[in-house]
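User: Batch of two.

Assistant: Item 1 of 2:
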Amino acid sequence: MSDTQKTVNPGPLGLIGFGMTTILLCLFYVGVIKEDGFPMILAMAIAIGGGAQFVSGITGLKIGDTFGGTVFTSYGLFYWSLCIILIKFGGASETAMGLYLLIWGIYTLFNFIAVLKADTASKIVFFTLAALFFLLSINAFTGSEIVLKIAGVVGIFSGATGLYAAMAQMVNAVHGKKTLPI
């Protein structure tokens, strides 16, 4: 293994992909972005949410980071699969979408359990992301606009926490010390 492989940290790239895409999508859920902005959200989900997280995950797996590699690869594939559902198939039934989101919520809850000994930002990201998936699942089953708006607020907070964690990791690495707490 080269020195570069030993020191590379793909986490910030994955967190940027997660944070930016989640914030943008959740701005749609709360009504800040309207229907005409949805193509932009899909493009972001494919390129950044899917692409950046997938690259980050594969890089993590390559350097032996099983958790980070698995998490970023799977969430990158989540965004790609969601885009396939929406673009190719025009969506899914309420029950199917509710179950799809519920399964992702359960997976995310297990990831939250895995990070209980990790930094505070990771705990917040995974807890709020699990809540987001469960709320979106409830919305898919019920069609509740209020639940969707709450999910949007939770998702914006989750994405912003992920984006902050990415920036903190980058700033701390550049400064060679803990400048921003995580």
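Item 2 of 2:
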Amino acid sequence: MKYIIGITLLLFLSCQSKQNNIELKTEITNNENNKLEVLLIGTFHFRNFNPKNNSDITQTNEVDVLTEQNQKELELISDKITEFNPDKIFVEHPFEKQSILDSTFQSFLPTNYYESKRNETVQLGFRVAKKLKHNKVFAYDYRNTSYPYNGMLETMKKANQTELIEKEDSDMLEYEKKYNELVQSTKSVTEILYLLNDEQDRKDDISWYFNSANKAGTVNDTIGSFLVSEWYKRNLYMYSIIQKQVTEKDKKIMIISGSSHIALFKNFIKYSPEWKTVELKEIMK
């Protein structure tokens, strides 16, 4: 009798354990399903097709988004994003100029993107928002920060950081070569966006700040760390502006930004129990 009772107890405990596991898995699944889905799209600055517009430190060639082929690709990308159906679209536009963005968006007629500006806000943000019949797109950029890059280089020279300077030059030239070769070989906006949203590319981007810039100067000179902190501050402030414009009604959002910003946003979202990221490649399948 004791043996039978023991077997029955073991079977009961086993069933309870399985039931608990099922309930736990269900709870985890439900939690995942209830998270805000954040589509992250890191871009190059479309206007940099004209080298005169390129104020970035890295001087790369850019594809022309107004070509017939790239307009077709942008249409396909925007159609896929429309299927994803974000409730809000966030663009890298100065937050304090939201009223100007509103006015531009309201008056914009998507009759011919070929004649529109080479601008990711228009070519991606407006294009998707118009397809979804949104009333507005949301600005979040924050620019009240410093970025003393040239001063940092001068500090590195004064500190005789020859190896660090050589690595800086070598890494930049290597990236420019890799990027420009891709532009020259494909001239495809889709392939460029895939590269800029690649996990390794994001890791390399963030790594430069902490493993190169942060080392700049002597122990008594903090210009490198100041540059990093200002860059981090800008991204943190932008992310905060996005967070504060999301409501409980929103199930999905899209953030369009320079790929460096997206790299850090991805890290921020990792620590959010209520948000999860979605990648461009995932929705393009």
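The chain has a mean pLDDT of 88.
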